[in-house]
């Protein structure tokens, strides 16, 4: 048996799985569950979304961040090319709280790329 771990975008996961080059996918679920024929999906754990920010950010002192506090804050998200449903997922999550996300930038790589620009970052649950 050979196991290879890879940090792939949703699009890459779909492409590799449809080409028969993936046997197992562990994913956050954003746009991965669509378009892969022949895969059985099982939820392992439901993850809470987190907000990552520098330790010096005013919200970093809170144990939980009320979603209303995200109004007008500049956010960095995952690009549509790699994660087609990411922005609409975040918009849908925030809409009931009257918040429209203010995306100022999108990254084309992976989730890990979002964290690389922060030397000292904290993560807070919503």
Biggest sheet strand order reads 1-4
H-E string: HEEHEHE
* Total number of helices: 3
Major pleated sheet: 2 strands, antiparallel
Please describe the structure with a list of short key phrases separated by commas or semicolons.
4 strands, 17% strand, two-stranded antiparallel sheet, alpha+beta, 126 residues, 3 helices, two-stranded parallel sheet
What can you see in these coordinates?
There is one protein chain. This protein is of the alpha+beta class. Helix content is about 20%, strand content about 15%. The chain contains three helices and four strands. It has helices spanning about 10-20, 85-95, 110-115; strands spanning about 50-55, 75-80, 100-105, 120-125. It has a two-stranded antiparallel ribbon with strand order 1-4. A two-stranded parallel ribbon has the order 2-3. Strand 2, helix 2 and strand 3 (about 100-105) form a beta-alpha-beta unit. The longest helix is centred in the N-terminal third of the chain and has 9 residues, at about 10-20. The radius of gyration is 16 Å and the shape is elongated. About 10% of the residues are buried.
